Amino acid sequence: MKRLPLLFLLSLFAFSLRLTLPGTDLDPRLQGAYRHNGPNGWIYVHLEGKPADIGFQHGYLLAPEIEDAQKVVSLELCYDSKKDWQFFRDTARTILWPRVESEYRDELNGIVEGLKAKGASLDIWDVVATNAWLELPYYLDFLKQQKGAGESPTPKAERCSAFVATGSYTRDGRVVMGHNAWTRYLDGERWNIIFDIRPAKGNQIIMDGFPGLIHSADDFGINSAGIMITETTITQFAGWDSGGIPEFARARKAMQYSDSIDDFARIMGTGNNGGYANNWLVADRKTSEIADLELGLKNVNLSRSRDGYFVGSNFPVSDKLAREETSFDSKDPSLSANARRARWEQLMKENKGKIDVASAKRFLADHFDTFSKKKEPNERTLCGHIDLSPRGSGSWQPPYGPAGAAQNKVSSSAMAERMSLAASAGHACGIHFKANEHLRAHPEFAWQKEHLRDMNSQAWTTFSAGQFR
What we know:
It contains 15 helices and 18 strands. By secondary structure, the protein is of the alpha+beta class.
């Protein structure tokens, strides 16, 4: 019998391998993309190519997680607003979609195509509404103001503790940045994606993220031009411009196309719709310059430094912005945002000249309450722990508990040069959250029961672009 050529046999073997190994599907749009489960509670996803291909890869590789995440987002938005999901789909179609530029329309449509290829039923309006999940409460408040009925503001989970330092404040004189995401555990448990995105245009990105979202959403990321980005929300902010560009589209564009701090400020400010108003902390690892972009709707303030620090804990920086665009009391030391701001100032002063990645991790696990002068995990500590049941002590308004710091990230100039960040899922302090135990004690949160999971504190893990290939 005639022997088959060795090259043919090797080709046949490679073909069979593609059919059986995860991430080796034959659809050409999946070329170069892959997924790696773990370690320590994270899912690492590499996406690359044109916008439609990046979207298809995203939807295909994360289809189960996207379907699950959309259910949680829908549950939260509908519970808080007392509106049905169709309202948010209609808002996505009529208010948001017309102002999303073609590149990100292609990516969002690609996500839908990837979902369909895996048998999921979500359509483009489900995906757009989910991407805008964090800014939609600002639109709801705008509608209430238009009615002039004096209704209560829509609940918003103002979230996150963050810092960026450089110069004489850090051990090597270069940038160190840290951030933890405060949110309901219901969605925070699912904020466990590390996205490594290599687009056909713009800069490569490594960022944390949420399934189905084209932006980080809690916003911690690094791009290949050396720009490092994070933020914290401006508490009790009110403002909306329906003619503006959705925040999720601007945030993704700024992460992808910023080559400088000036680029970032320009992209975020252009077409600002006021949704998900944040105090952005930005750094350029090439120059070791850091910046604080306080992005209100009426007030926009940019501060910069090559020797100093900026911190965020949801407080408005500018007194003028606080007066004109928020209802926040900057003088009340018992409020979470003010107490955490005071703690950040203490830590920056105490650690001047010593701040590095290890100390950043320690800061994000900190439990000192500047109001009570005690170490006790609660809503006033940098590692936030919030129970907003009627028996709880949280300063946020119901229905935001059980909630708190659901995950953490840090990076430095040296790490950013390697497109690298360290991340810890769950509370960085080591405290675990057990869903059934909490629900037994607090049956008022039974509406979350179907989707609420245990959230264990996981070890810090370092991720880099191109990892697990």
